[in-house]
Amino acid sequence: MKAVGVVEASCEAIFQLVMSMDTTRFEWDCSFQYGSLVEEVDGHTAILYHRLQLDWFSAFTWPRDLCYVRYWRRNDDGSYVVLFQSREHPNCGPQPGFVRAHIESGGFNISPLKSRNGRVRTQVQHLMQIDLKGWGVGYLPSFQQHSLLHMLNSVAGLREWFSQSDESQILPRIPVMDNMALSVSSKKGKKTQDSTVQTSLPADESRHSTVEEESDEDEEFLLPESELEPSTRELDADGKLLGLDEEDSGEIDFSGFSGNLRRDDRDNSRDCWRISDGNNFRVRSKNFIYDKSKVPAGKPLMELVAVDWFKDVKRMDHVAKRKGCAVQVAAEKGLFSLAINLQVPGTTNYSMVFYFVSKKLIPNSLLQRFVDGDDEFRNSRFKLIPSVPKGSWIVRQSVGSTPCLLGKAVDITYIRGANYLEIDVDIGSSTVANGVLGLVCGVITTLVVDMAFLVQGHTYEELPERLIGAVRMSHIELSSAVVPVLED
Hints:
The chain is α+β, with helices and mostly antiparallel strands. The protein contains 14 helices and 20 strands.
């Protein structure tokens, strides 16, 4: 269930109020009784304890409390996302006299609106899917509905609070639980609900910024998709100036390419991949530097021919050297290949490897300059556009759909071979990305995820942008990953 309202206050002020769990919260959240910090995992993730004030036949129903992980991020457009999901924690066990409720997904989406009559306006969305547990839910269905509406009234509470208060900056103040030992917390705070996947690393201030790091131009002028002016794809003579058009000399021979993750183009397939339609993604148009317009991406530059899904006790680097892999097959066919290795750290390390192939690179094209450029140039241009067509609200909000310059958000290793480029993306190098992984990995089998990779265009000659390739991953199983045989 979701509540939406417009509040006359800045996103920053509303965000700080939403993050607070001191006496200020009583003034706008009528479902709040008490809250405390159990553990601060990193600058974006914390474990919280929360007692609910539901006021529904208290003589017949026990009070409810929560232990949950809270994750937040700030997007390039100035909006904030604050997400909640229940989580067990050794320092936050069952409390006497309380029934432990379970948040399936929930949180706030705080987005800036155009000002009206000189007043700042912000849209606040509050979503909550919660199971209150206990006998009252089964015997008294109205208890669940009443309590949920009581919690969602916080949007109206925020609007009322700011209408009667000046926009003072209130820093979040969260008391620590009495039975929490900081020394124990610091040692145990490195593990997640899924023991096989690491979701937090020692705090690194350089990685506390949001993952969605677009270029300076986009941070200044990025608009909501609904406000972008419609445009058509410009792939005529202007496009040919880039040297990025598809080769016109026959089709690529796809025989012999294989990966351990199967391809399946049916809509309801599971544990598989398929090629995603490039028009599902919007990229910079030819006139982007003048009007910031974006257009459907169209056909990609390279062909996705195989996907590998690996696991091992150690991180898997330079997978292109593996005998029989798609890179080796492409070399035998005289093709150029680009392998993108997304590395997920943890007790068990995982790697999702995408193999894209094309005919010879066109000299002086943006793609060729990216492949043969230095790491500084590559990091400033390698971009990912994510999307979650199918998944829970909390996952869709945590992943988002904002383009991300991966080289500015995580550590990347580039390996240039004679006829290939491998890009090893260490997702574990970012605490923000790890926070997202903590939400995604536990429900990965329920997700359909789209990813598009491209080289960001800056100048008029480099536009319009073209995708390297795009892929859709459907309901991936961790158990289907295999241990690769890599040469030392």
